[in-house]
Each structure stands twice: as structure tokens, then as C-alpha cells.
Amino acid sequence: MPDPSCNPYLALAVMAAAAIDGIERKLLPPPPIQRNIYQMSVRERRKHKIRELPGTLREALEALKKDPVIREALGEHVYTHFLQAKQMEWDDYRVTVHQWELDRYLATY
């Protein structure tokens, strides 16, 4: 299940669309990994074809823009408005001075 703070309707819609896409394309899931992937080296993760998730909202939005399955699942209207809302959220976050920055740099400089 995705992050509990997400919109469950959108999350379930895109997960169902991804599942259907995988079935239609006859994709097979990889074998299960019985180890903690966070304790694996980069080389081990590459060997098992484990990719990293986007590290920031900006990276997630860039990945979303490249995904036609999600775009189709959401429909043009929802997709466009979702992207706009999340881009504004990223822009707000990006220009905000956070407490960590104050704690880290204010005393130093």
C-alpha cells in the first residue's frame, strides 16, 4: 500500500492501472528478495535490478511526466491539475528556509 497520506482514490486507480498494464504486457514479477535491500550495496541492488525511488518531489514529478500509464489512468483533467498542484507544493518547499538550515548554518555563519 502507498503512503497513508496519499489520496487513496488516486493511489488505487493508478495501482490498478499499473497492474492491468503489467498483465496486458505479460510482465512477470522478479523473484522475491529475502534480504533487507537497505543493507545491500549499490552493486548488489543493481545485480537484482532494484531501482531507487525518486528522492524528492521534483524527481517524482519528472518520473510521473514520463509515465503514460498513470496519465491515462488519471485522465487529462486530473493529471494536469495534480501536476500543477504538486509543482506549486515543490516550489513552496524549495524556497522555504527550514529549521534544519537555521540550526545548521545560522550559528556557523
UniProtKB/TrEMBL annotation:
Keyword Nucleus on entry: no
Start and end residues of each GS catalytic domain: 1-109
GO BP, one annotated term: glutamine biosynthetic process
Span of the signal peptide: none
Pfam families: Gln-synt_C
Assigned keywords, A-Z: Ligase
One Gene Ontology molecular-function label: glutamine synthetase activity
Presence of the UniProt keyword Ligase in the record: yes
Annotated family: Belongs to the glutamine synthetase family.
UniProt-recorded name of the protein: Type I glutamate--ammonia ligase
